[in-house]
Amino acid sequence: xxxxxxxxxxxxxxxxxxxxxxxxxxxxxxxxxxxxxxxxxxxxxxxxxxxxxxxxxxxxxxxxxxxxxxxxxxxxxxxxxxxxxxxxxxxxxxxxxxxxxxxxxxxxxxxxxxxxxxxxxxxxxxxxxxxxxxxxxxxxxxxxxxxxxxxxxxxxxxxxxxxxxxxxxxxxxxxxxxxxxxxxxxxxxxxxxxxxxxxxxxxxxxxxxxxxxxxxxxxxxxxxxxxxxxxxxxxxxxxxxxxxxxxxxxxxxxxxxxxxxxxxxxxxxxxxxxxxxxxxxxxxxxxxxxxxxxxxxxxxxxxxxxxxxxxxxxxxxxxxxxxxxxxxxxxxxxxxxxxxxxxxxxxxxxxxxxxxxxxxxxxxxxxxxxxxxxxxxxxxxxxxxxxxxxxxxxxxxxxxxxxxxxxxxxxxxxxxxxxxxxxx
Length: 424
Description:
Number of strands: 21
Helix content: 10-25%
Oligomer: single chain
Low-confidence stretches: 7-12, 418-424
Strand order of the largest sheet: 1-4-3-2-5-19-20-21
Largest sheet: 8 strands, mixed
């Protein structure tokens, strides 16, 4: 359906910024507007829509640009520029700032499995960065997962489901923990999910060896059906493969996402390493962008050169931008250890692989924002270009190369005017 022009009652352009170009709002079902305008003022979007509908008084100082997108929302990210999200507040700020400057203007800090006291310390430090707006929330990727599917997590830190521990972490988070990755087969699974519901945390199934029947029971046996929001942590990665006799969790998660659009959201890492393009195209075709959250799973090497890094307590070697656990020469390549890409790069890959531009943008903006409750009305609403939303806006070339990222109307980096089509 076409996007309707929108405006904030009583607002004017003031000293704001006006952008005119091809406009992708990020709203589900909205068509790309070939000649659209976005007006930002006071940190928010005050008008957007077809340029032909622009009210009198909003047409001053419009800047022509190739393509306008909403700021992207990354709900699974471990760090960047040499820093891992941890108890290092300064490093976390640098990592979040880097991703914002690369187009992901809202980022959840993902914490890998670690001893309880370490996780508690990380939560207590990072919650302040959520409260001051640096981060959009916290994501606990473990430790209630399955050792055989730990991937690049320390198996010594993986423990059975413990509701008392989870309650302690969530209380310490003071509402900043937004997502928890857990395996359906972990003990006390139902109690853990109930705690998530009580604290507004999205349970995310992942790092699991669960059968199809166990996965179906997990989704339907807690609240009498898929009644609350669920997600799947990096679908296909660190779970049994989809087999025609042993379907595992993937078949159930795909079916649930298709049958309950928007209620079950599947994370995909479209970095060209974790998933084949055919798989990405297939999932978009089966469940649509309202049930997909494109993520980076980026670790400290994002924005850096190849070399040695860490993820949690484990050593990681990055070669040709592929991160793997460091191992001995005779042991062969280690497990993939997160990623090094940026979210806009993953959107660009999806489009190159045949996913419609509007769908790829929805999966990297409004869907993850809605999943984590970041789209609620108010001045900090993100995930789309609509009046009243925070002015998180990207300007890109037609090839989806970033020209400028705005966060709350503030440019995040020096303008990249060297791009061939950075202006028209």
